[in-house]
Design a protein that fits this description.
The chain is built from three helices and four strands; from the N terminus they run E-H-E-H-E-H-E. By secondary structure, the protein is of the alpha+beta class.
Length: 160
């Protein structure tokens, strides 16, 4: 059987454009981000974090995206528009530990919803997104330093 020239590399091996280890002709989820753990069909494993954006900033005590946050979110828009027909993503909002836990939970939910609303406004399918506020429950850095708190104020994109 002959291969179409543009589906193989210079030595005749099938192309793997997203470099996930699954040849394009078998890849059911093309365009997965580099380093994402995938199954045999090339789709991210459930529970796998596919993107973590620490530059998604909000004004203090607000759930309104800053212009810088919108710039950072364009990366997610591109990624999700390429895969929103085959994967569902949980958009997790995270806060630092400053303030009351219940308040941070509510704020993180509002921020996750703001991110989902922005993604939908840019053409990502709403049915593939689920906003979840995580509050201060999943820090990735030390909350006793300003730098650590800044890292903990983030949005993670996790495969459902």
């Amino acid at each position: 059987e002959m291969c179409i020239r543009d589906r193989v590399d210079s030595v005749g091996c099938p192309l793997d454009t997203d470099k996930d280890g699954v040849a394009d002709y078998k890849d059911m989820c093309p365009g997965t981000p580099l380093g994402t753990v995938v199954d045999e069909a090339g789709c991210p494993l459930k529970g796998e974090k596919i993107l973590s954006l620490t530059g998604v900033n909000f004004a203090f005590d607000k759930a309104v995206l800053t212009p810088n946050a919108e710039t950072v979110l364009e990366e997610a828009v591109t990624l999700l528009k390429n895969s929103d027909s085959v994967i569902e993503v949980r958009v997790e909002g995270h806060t630092d530990s400053v303030g009351a836990e219940a308040y941070n939970q509510k704020l993180s939910q509002e921020r996750a919803e703001a991110v989902v609303a922005y993604l939908v406004s840019r053409g990502v399918k709403e049915r593939s997104l689920k906003a979840v506020g995580m509050g201060e429950t999943s820090p990735v850095a030390d909350n006793t330093t300003a730098d650590g708190r800044a890292e903990n104020r983030r949005v993670d994109f996790v495969v459902e």
